[in-house]
Amino acid sequence: MSALSSRISSLAPFLLQSPPGQVENVYNDIAGLLQAEEDTEGSSISEKEVNIQLRKAADPALKDHNEQQFVIVKVQGGTATSDATSTIICQEARLQVQGRNRYRHARLPISFEIDHKTLATTAVKSLEHNAEVEPLRRAWDAALAEYIGDRYPDGKAAVFARLLGEPTGGSASEIEPTAAPEKGLASSEEADDSDKKAEEDAETSAEGSQDVEDKAAAESNVPAASATLKEVSGPAPLVAHIVGTRLNPRNFWAGRWRGTYTYDPSHSSVLAARYQIVVHYYENGNVQMNYEHSEELAVSGASAQDAESAAKALTRAIEKAEGEVAEGISKQVEELGGDAFRAMRRMLPVTKQKVNWDKLVSYKIGSELSK
């Protein structure tokens, strides 16, 4: 392994520790450090070669970062103003199709590939979800979307069914990536075409000939029929992710709330919950607060036979639990400032006055030390 490769391997994991909204800055800092080291040693390796090697080595770390932080992406082909085209990147959304990583959309019947550095999406293909759990998954996703709209200004929720195996259908030639605009946003021509199609679909919907999922697929310019891939159907647990991120670089702080909720319809009274909260404050310093907690929530009124009532019961349990977690963290922060920080301060001597070290000899202990 060359010296450059060794340095890249040691620095790339820092991407996983990037504070909210800072992963691009961390990546650029790593690139700058590597290039500065090469220049110091008088290496003949060009800046372009350094960036190529860093990009290749950083891809796995960027993938893990995006999945762990529940990064939100907008799928290519969607209108710029349509929230229906955005989704969460996470481990539960990842598909393995003939050795290639693809991701499922939480609300639309599609899958796609992604560039984990630019977040550009490519190779969008239709996907049939697990038909057996789809009614409950869709109902819970809709209930959480309403809850998110009330509680998280910049939040997103997504519900996925655990995969029971590799999706069927498709071929290697069908999933070759295609060119995509930066950040995965549609071009103006694509947006115009998508808007026209959305208007046509709205008229069709008024006649009652298209269901909700087909309208969402049409709005994102993705075909709703002739699915290329199909999930294995059968009983499966559902995993819901909630993410809310607030970035305030002007005042040097950022924060992210992540919640993961796992529900097995065969155990309808229990919801496994996990909370991950990070707050980063970096004015004249670098302070992070990380909070993580797991628990099991009691769910009342959930029935696998009634998807709508089960979705509402699950969302009520989440709303109550998240409120209690937020209140608990607020109390801990107050105690931290009033008790913990005070205990860390250096205590004054019995005279209740600071020691004047320039006049140490005037103190009795100073006289004894000088003997």
TrEMBL record:
Keyword Plastid: no
Domain of life: Eukaryota
UniProt-annotated stretches for the region Disordered: 167-223
GO annotation, biological process: actin cytoskeleton organization; barbed-end actin filament capping
InterPro entries: CapZ_alpha, CapZ_alpha/beta, CapZ_alpha/beta_2, CapZ_alpha_1
Keyword annotations from UniProtKB, A to Z: Actin capping, Actin-binding
UniProt GO molecular function: actin filament binding
Keyword hit for Cell membrane: no
GO CC annotations on file: actin cortical patch; F-actin capping protein complex
Annotated protein name in UniProt: F-actin capping protein, alpha subunit
